[in-house]
UniProtKB/TrEMBL annotation:
This is ABC transporter substrate-binding protein. Transmembrane segments: none annotated. Keywords: Transport. The lineage of its organism: Archaea, Methanobacteriati, Methanobacteriota, Thermococci, Thermococcales. Signal peptide: none annotated. Belongs to the bacterial solute-binding protein 1 family. PANTHER family: ARABINOSE-BINDING PROTEIN-RELATED, OSMOPROTECTIVE COMPOUNDS-BINDING PROTEIN GGTB.
Length: 425
């Protein structure tokens, strides 16, 4: 009995100690604190584990990348559980890399900016997710989704577009030398002749180059001015040959005489050409609207389209979502954002781009782009010729134009090569 009473007393004492929280020198107030800290640590760890990292690939760097990152930052603010990592790759390199990775069931990124024709091709082969659930065709300018739609499925999310509206000049340069924008073709040629006589000017027009695309933009502007959108579309489809009299006439009577007269410089790396043109070595520069965000004072920019221009290239960027992404839900959410709200943000930066989403107004634009947006809205929009054809022919086109620029007498050879190398339908 004594032992039983002793054990009972010890039990009472033990229960009393536990209820008072005085064991091992630890107080009752300390125990909940320890538990609370543990819960916070667990929550923080869980949130970190749940944050998704999306990889995005695009062609932009420098000022263009700064403008695009404003869109990405806005997306991340709206989706705190998603972090976006961006890498820069040239589309020309991706055209070689991606097919191999896709065939092996892998992808270097979750959302990738690429040419429309390439996206359509990868969609046909089953490498991409259908974006029809996040893209409403009725909300976009007509025809913008055509290049990335295959058998009723949308494989590319349209982003903002660059317009290629004509030759840029500095208003201060024109004022200094008493020059006026031309209203007719003859006045345009006369303007070039006047500029050529100005001391310090190397040639009236600087010819931007890279892998060839700036020269193709110039050629397309001539085709759209003197042949119209219909001719451009027929060339893209292969329904009209490059040696066709109508096409040859544009080269022989309009472009080649300017090349022979020395009004165009030899091809110069396009970003370096901007600096040379801006300081006065050249007076005119044919470039897309993105140039507005690459100069010191965009308010000093003036624009000369070829007189009588009927249509302009509207070249949108497209994003695709490879089906090999590990985060399809989040990748589709980003694609949707880029194609909608992201456009409104992007045109408000110094990107020099135009919206393809109809829910963007003129008031949303960066001030120097508002007038350009109005000009572009007054002409027909046309697809980019070499981007639409794509493939190996695109490289041939660029190379042949570089040849034409330095040896305009070889026009016949150039046109013949473009026909011979054009993809067979």
């Amino acid at each position: 009995m004594k032992r039983l009473l002793t054990l009972a007393l010890l039990g009472v004492v033990l229960m009393s100690v536990l209820s008072s929280g005085c064991i091992g020198g630890t107080t009752q107030t300390q125990t909940p604190v320890t538990k609370t800290v543990t819960e916070k640590e667990t929550i923080t760890k869980t949130e970190t584990q749940q944050q998704i990292v999306l990889k995005v690939i695009g062609p932009w760097s420098g000022a263009e990348l700064d403008a695009f990152m404003e869109v990405i930052k806005a997306f991340e603010r709206e989706h705190p559980n998603i972090k976006v990592e961006y890498k820069t790759y040239r589309a020309e390199d991706l055209a070689t890399i991606l097919p191999l990775q896709f065939e092996s069931g892998d992808t270097p990124a979750d959302v990738i900016a690429m040419w429309g024709w390439f996206i359509a091709e990868m969609g046909k082969k089953g490498h991409l997710l259908d974006l029809s659930s996040v893209i409403n065709p009725d909300e976009y300018i007509p025809g913008i989704l055509d290049p990335v739609t295959v058998a009723g499925k949308i494989y590319g999310a349209p982003f903002t577009a660059a317009a290629k509206p004509g030759f840029w000049y500095r208003k201060s340069f024109f004022k200094e030398h008493g020059l006026e924008p031309p209203k007719t073709w003859d006045e345009f040629v006369e303007l070039l002749a006047k500029i050529q006589k100005i001391p310090g000017v190397k040639t009236p027009i600087v010819s931007g180059d890279s892998v060839g695309w700036p020269l193709s933009d110039v050629v397309e502007h001539f085709i759209l001015t003197f042949g119209g959108r219909d001719l451009q579309l027929k060339l893209i489809k292969g329904e009209v040959k490059w040696e066709d009299p109508q096409v040859r006439d544009i080269f022989e009577k309009r472009l080649v005489p300017l090349l022979k007269a020395g009004y165009f410089s030899e091809p110069i790396e396009w970003t370096s050409a901007i600096d040379l043109w801006w300081k006065g070595d050249y007076a005119l520069y044919f470039m897309g609207t993105w140039i507005t965000g690459m100069v010191e004072d965009p308010n000093d920019l003036g624009l000369i389209s070829l007189p009588g221009v009927k249509a302009m290239v509207i070249a949108p960027d497209y994003f695709m979502v490879p089906k090999y992404t590990k985060h399809p839900k989040e990748a589709l959410e980003l694609a949707k954002f880029l194609a909608t709200k992201g456009q409104k943000i992007h045109v408000g930066t110094k990107s020099g781009k135009l919206a393809t989403w109809r829910n963007v107004s003129i008031d949303d634009y960066w001030e120097p782009m508002k007038e350009v947006a109005k000009i572009v809205s007054e002409v027909e929009s046309a697809p980019d010729l070499d981007d639409s054809v794509g493939g190996e022919w695109q490289k041939v086109f660029w190379d042949q134009l570089k040849l034409l620029w330095v040896q305009p007498d070889r026009l016949d050879e150039v046109l013949k090569t473009l026909d011979e190398k054009f993809p067979k339908k």
